[in-house]
Amino acid sequence: MARRTAYTSSLALAATLALSVLVARGARGLELRQVTRPYLHSEGPSWDRAHNGLLFVDIAGDSLHFYDAATGGVRGLAFEGPVTPAIQLPGGTLAVGVGRTLQEVDWAASGFGAVLASRPAVLATVDQDKPGNRFNDGAADSLGRMWIGTMGPEPVVGQVTPNQGSLFRITRRRSDADPLWSRLVDPRGHRDTDGGAALVTTALANVSISNGLVFNRRETLMYYIDTPTRRVDVFDYNLAAGTIANRRPAFDLAANNVEGNPDGMAIDADDNLWVACFGGSQVIHVDPRTGRLLRRVAIPASQVTAVALGGPRDAQGGDTLYVTSMRKGLSEDQLLLEPNAGAVFAVTGLGVRAQRRP
């Protein structure tokens, strides 16, 4: 059962709140609930509108999870390797990254059970020349075209080998007679060489930690994070062609005196961004058109990893901000200050709703 707790938005109280399990309500009426137990590295949340729940992964725990908003229960599915991302695809299946391999998984067909009803299909394996790499964050556009990035080895939490990752465009193969497939095929006829069931194109190279990828409502812009830059960048996006161009900064954390490094990201119905700040105990709300910091939301965990908007009222656009966090890498003393690190939290009372594309 989820623990309901009142919430304050003051960053200065973050450590105190962690010890007192968030007992004070903030002046702006925000409320934070811890909705799962702590995991090693909860990440990659996305709201599953069809099943009224939240999908998320535990990267270090090699597992995919589903939080049922109606019951408060969490179900899990184990894999053989670090799991991220888990992207919802048209038709109800999931694209799940396991290490450097992307699999198509129909978890809903098994009722989100511990055993799949059918064997996953291998879509692609990337970075063949960099066996220490793994997938990190990603998203799909409205046509089901996936944009997923990788990162280099991380022998110590926060110490990633730089410039080893890439950003890939990955498209499931379909019959040439399929109208949707004909809109998605690479005009150059590119075919991947690993025998997977997808087309793979490298969109960006020399990436350190590919992160936080979202589209605006009209899908004319794609926002993207390479974490060590401490920026959110934006590209012009051509949905028909599946191409990005004209990269430029949208928000600079250092210039705005924001603590922490940008990690996962979500976008709301107003096309404003919500950015998880790893090492900053907060999520920031940003207007990417003006570069303005709108507000900060404190989280009782220093290693905030990602965010998603959703919730039971998602028919009108969910109004709950789900926040994942990480406990891996924290010392015993740090865990005493933030015992719930690694849990998934839900913040309400923000006055925003999830984006619904046309």
TrEMBL record:
Annotated gene: LOC117651968
Cofactor names: Zn(2+)
Naturally occurring in which organism (per UniProt): Thrips palmi
Signal sequence region: 1-29
An example molecular function term from Gene Ontology annotations: gluconolactonase activity
Record keywords, A-Z: Metal-binding, Signal, Zinc
This protein's name: Regucalcin-like
InterPro entries referenced in this protein's UniProt entry, alphabetically: 6-blade_b-propeller_TolB-like, SGL, SMP-30
Chain ranges of the SMP-30/Gluconolactonase/LRE-like region domain: 42-326
Residues involved in substrate binding: 134, 136
Binding site for a divalent metal cation: 43, 154, 211, 263
